[in-house]
Amino acid sequence: MEKKLKAENIRKLYEGKEIIKDVSLEIYKGELVSLLGVSGVGKTTLFNVLSGILIPEEGKVFLDDKDITGKAGYISYMLQKDLLMPYKTVVDNVALPLLIKGEKKKSARLRADAKFKEFGIEGSQNKYPHELSGGMRQRAALLRTYLFSNEVALLDEPFSALDTITKSKMHSWYLTIMEKIKLSTLFITHDIDEAILLSDRIYIMTGQPGKIKYEIEIETPKPRGEEFLVSEDFISYKKQILNIFNNN
Predict the structure, then answer these.
(1) Are residues 90 and 69 in the same domain?
(2) Average pLDDT estimate for 203-230
(3) For a Cys-Cys bond, which of 98, 128, 164, 224 suits 103, CB 3.0-4.6 Å?
């Protein structure tokens, strides 16, 4: 299996305090890996290092074996809030990464437009963000993220603001679209159920400073339907993860 993203022995301080220490991870092509941990453990700090926003005190980040430590622009990063610009149409919001990379506006719009049907937002191109539901906004934001980089994406709790029913529908859609686009993804979540449902593997981050101390492989084939949430396999994975958090 082709390795896309690798982090080695990352250490990062903030105002003299160690936030994360000796953090290493690997993401393979087309894989979705969740990063699970309590608030304040250093997950977002790690994302900022992986994306090149922050430079670590120690450690390296590699994309396809190329050292990208402290270099922004190689990996796409989607935050919890969709950050769609209210004064731009949806297609112009989605096309923004292509414009930033120097593509002509007409060409960028056409390339973005060609993906709307695949991402389930066909017909919304000329609407404005306030006219879309929360789920549709997140689909548009994910498409924008994909157009920034179809290599590796970092998603920071992208579904946490959605209501339970919308979130469930988004999980089903997301599993389907990920099977199509094979985007290598590292996914922050506090939601154990979400991590088990979506992931190929789960890294569990604990401690102060934060360290990745556990790795769990979810072997159930994907895509996984709602019936998986009540299966013996699901319950077994959840017990394993809860035991880890209860003992750390």
Answers:
(1) no
(2) 91
(3) 98
